Amino acid sequence: MKVKNLIVGAGISGATLAYKIATELQEDVLIIDSKDHIGGNCYDYYNTDGICVHQYGTHIFHTNLKNVWDFVSQFTKWYPYMHKVKGFIDGQEVPIPFNLNSIYQVFPQTIAQTLEHKLIEKFGFNVKVPILELRKVGDEDLNFLADYIYEKVFLHYTLKQWGMKPEDLDPAVTGRVPVYISRDDRYFQDVYQGIPLHGYTAMFQKMLDSKLINVQLNTKFSDIRNDVSFERLFYTGPIDEFFDFELGALPYRSLKFDFVTFDTPYFQSNSVINYPNNYDFTRIGEYKYFLNDQSNKTVVSFEYPQSFEIGLNERYYPIVKDENQALYAKYLAKAQALHNVYFLGRLGDYKYYDMDKAINRALELFEKIKK
Ligand code: UDP
What is the pLDDT of residues 219-237, one digit of tens each? Predict the structure, then answer.
């Protein structure tokens, strides 16, 4: 078999590239995926109760990149959902990122007022401060606050999620959820936020709906490597696997989801509730909130972090820390020596991309190769 473009992986990166190549270059694309569905870890489906379930955990689309928003909006209408997360802390459900409202919820008013004034005086209002930065402030009251938030929000959650303390990871990881000196309870402040009105899978189906795009599921690269000739290869799978792990395996974190249907209209008060300090799971997601699905039943997922082991579970997160970046850099050097082979996506770039950043990366790569 002969194709101009082979794309390995039908997730967000692969689907974006496939669409651009087919529509703008009018070239044929074979896109393969080892899974039995498109969409990668964004895959969702409607269950028999009419609830749209995200098979790989809650996915909320958010971006400040207008070009990315315009791009994906060609394939879907949006349910204009603004994500909020509650953390179960000291018996209460408080806004996460921990903000001024959270402070007033967990502390007596006089203490909360002092902390609010000091925070605003030190950092200003509407400012995001990573917890590891807040811990460096040399003020007794703010140290007390930083220690409280570190212990109650970050330490035990991060130990569960990564098997490591916050300070042993790249600061950008916990920096994703900074302390927010604001009354804004939303998880993201991006201009564009939403859930695809008919789900992510329908959005991907539209992206890949072209005579020039041939989708082959249940197919690994190794299954077809010797049978297909191609001019360009776009590889969104793990870069270390591509090179047969010859420099060693890049570490990943995995997740296990326990999905449970309850015979009640709602299980919890919010789409996502984090449990930093209780239980072995990190969070519970309740799916009907995302598209306001109406049903007398509800589906939730309990999310258990796990170490990634080849063949046993899936790669979800690259583990962002210096030594792993150094190993990735060696694989990248090997990749760059190849001709007409491109790596991208969370696994190909070994980067903790959000969905919008993965799309933007694919769009930028397309601009580069089309010349
Ligand atoms: N985090 C935490 N407590 C929380 C929420 C997040 O400690 O209640 C930390 C944790 O290390 C987590 C990171 O911040 O892995 C990033 O959180 P985010 O919600 O962005 O993770 P994702 O949704 O990508 O799994």
Answer: 999 999 999 999 999 999 9
Which element (helix H / strand E) includes 145?
helix 140-149
DSSP percent split of the chain into helix, strand, coil, nearest 5: 35, 25, 40
Look up residue 89 and give its two tokens.
């802390």
Q: Which CATH superfamily is domain 2-78+196-247+317-369 in?
A: NAD(P)-binding Rossmann-like Domain (3.40.50.720)
Distance between CA atoms of residues 104 and 115, nearest Å: 9
Q: Is 153 in the pocket of ligand 1 (CB under 6 A)?
A: yes
Tell me the C-alpha distance between 253 and 305, whole Å.
7
Contacts of 217 (CB under 8 A, 6+ apart): 10, 32, 33, 35, 36, 37, 38
Q: Which residues make beta-bridge pairs with 257?
A: 303
pLDDT of residue 71: 98
Question: Measured from the CB, is residue 252 less than 6 Å from ligand 1?
Answer: no
Where are the domains positioned within the chain? Answer: 2-78+196-247+317-369, 85-181
Q: Which residues pair with 235 in a beta bridge?
A: 8, 343
- pTM for the full model? 0.97
Q: Does 76 contact ligand 1 (Cβ within 6 A)? A: no
Establish whether residue 158 lines the binding site of ligand 1, counting it when its CB lies within 6 angstroms of any ligand atom.
yes
Q: Which two tokens stand for residue 245?
A: 């792990």
Confidence of residue 371 (pLDDT cuts 50, 70, 90): confident
Distance 140 CA to ligand 1 centre (A): 27
